[in-house]
């Protein structure tokens, strides 16, 4: 949990920047609970808090589309900033109209999230400030290491057991900041029959996993909202690793790097090899 | 320019999951789960995730209906209650 000093420093900075911005997207805690909010000048900033995490990048995208001239700020963790990087590349966010008020997560938070990069990268966001002291990334998800020791049959059995729990709520997709397509393959009757449980094995989850290639920024929000506690990010961590090894692309890391699926094989030659 | 989240309880079943309606300039534009809700703890089912879609749906009943002849006609609450009470 971020210390009280960090919260106060962020509130003070938001108060200052609100004079030049149309609003700042952050979390607001009231007697109802905590949820994303657009803070505007004059709002009670003592309600601004830093957790629990919500995909704030999606809120920025929504607001920028509704107000194409407005300039917004966002109180962003490393995962929010990475999400904004990938959304920028896919025209979901305009970085020129966005002020990033970054915060560094604590070591405990980085460990809890297995976070690769627990603070916004100021090379991607030159105008950003980062409040707090950036810490090292967390350790990799231990389930990934366990999974890699399994045989192909065991892996299939592992996912069969996990996906059996799926209630097809689409929460992993709905909450994901990188899932913004208007037409979704998971609603295409060619792949997924609507109104029927359970989801087709293994296509439902593998389609989503494939669509996360070059997109998943490891924010883990999908896993946190999954009512069935499916370790979804094991899949996406492995996809992230494959994309990294094959074409040297790390989603969310570099705002100037083109996503590999938007390039030809000549532009982004496959340099690694899958086992 | 106003974006806020309004806490409510999912209306679909007896679980009573907590969810927020995302409200942009007075219009419901989406759903977010309530992570602090003691029942649902940040999760929803497909009905909860789509709870915003019926609010402004054209098929939603907005007045009582009284059957007259082969069809239904819009009625006021006073008319409807007078008929059944």
What would you note in describing this structure?
The complex is a heterodimer of chains A (275) and B (85). Chain A is α/β, with parallel strands linked by helices and 275 residues long. Chain A is 36% helix and 11% strand. Chain A has helices spanning 4-17, 56-66, 78-89, 107-113, 142-148, 152-164, 171-175, 203-211, 221-225, 232-247; strands spanning 23-30, 33-39, 48-49, 72-76, 98-103, 129-131. In chain A, strands 1, 2, 3, 4, 5 and 6 form a six-stranded mixed β-sheet that branches. In chain A, β4 (72-76), α3 (78-89) and β5 (98-103) form a beta-alpha-beta unit. In chain A, α2 crosses α3 (78-89). Chain B has 85 residues and is α+β, with helices and mostly antiparallel strands. In chain B, 14% of the residues lie in helices and 34% in strands. Chain B is built from two helices and five strands. Chain B has helices at 46-49, 77-84; strands spanning 3-9, 18-24, 27-33, 65-68, 71-74. Chain B is elongated, with a radius of gyration of 17 Å. The model of chain B has no long low-confidence stretch (mean pLDDT 95). Classes of the chains: A alpha/beta (275), B alpha+beta (85). The A-B interface holds A 22-23, 25, 28, 32-38, 40, 52, 54, 59, 62-63, 66-67, 70, 167-171, 174-175, 224-227 and B 1-7, 18, 20, 22, 24-25, 29-37, 40, 42-46, 48-49.
């Amino acid at each position: 949990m971020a210390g009280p000093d960090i919260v106060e420093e962020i509130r003070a900075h938001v108060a200052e920047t609100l004079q030049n911005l149309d609003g700042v997207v952050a979390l607001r805690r009231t007697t109802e609970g905590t949820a994303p909010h657009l803070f505007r000048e004059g709002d009670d900033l003592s309600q601004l808090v830093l957790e629990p995490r919500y995909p704030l990048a999606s809120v920025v995208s929504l607001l920028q589309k509704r107000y194409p001239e407005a300039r917004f700020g966002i109180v962003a963790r490393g995962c929010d900033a990475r999400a904004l990087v990938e959304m920028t590349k896919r025209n979901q966010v305009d970085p020129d109209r966005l002020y990033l008020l970054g915060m560094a997560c604590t070591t405990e938070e980085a460990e809890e999230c297995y976070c690769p990069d627990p603070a916004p990268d100021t090379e991607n966001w030159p105008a950003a400030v980062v409040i707090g002291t950036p810490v090292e990334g967390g350790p990799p998800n231990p389930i990934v290491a366990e999974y890699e020791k399994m045989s192909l049959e065991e892996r299939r059995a592992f996912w069969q057991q996990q996906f059996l729990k799926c209630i097809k709520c689409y929460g992993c997709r709905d909450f994901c900041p990188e899932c913004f397509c208007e037409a979704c393959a998971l609603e295409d009757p060619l792949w997924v029959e609507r109104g029927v449980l359970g989801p087709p094995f293994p296509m439902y989850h593998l389609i989503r996993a494939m669509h996360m290639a070059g997109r998943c920024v490891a924010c883990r929000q999908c896993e946190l909202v999954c009512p069935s506690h499916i370790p979804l990010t094991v899949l996406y961590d492995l996809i992230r690793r494959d994309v990294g090894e094959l074409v040297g692309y790390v989603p969310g890391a570099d705002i100037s790097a083109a996503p590999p699926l938007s390039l030809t094989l000549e532009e982004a030659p496959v340099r690694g090899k899958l086992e | 320019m106003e974006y806020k989240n309004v806490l409510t309880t999912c209306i679909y079943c007896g679980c009573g999951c907590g969810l927020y309606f995302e409200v942009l300039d007075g219009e419901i534009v989406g759903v977010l789960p309530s992570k602090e809700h003691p029942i649902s703890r940040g999760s929803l089912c497909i009905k909860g995730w789509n709870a915003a879609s019926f609010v402004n749906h054209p098929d939603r009943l907005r007045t009582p209906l009284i059957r007259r002849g082969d069809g239904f006609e819009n009625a006021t609450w006073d008319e409807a209650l007078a008929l059944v009470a």
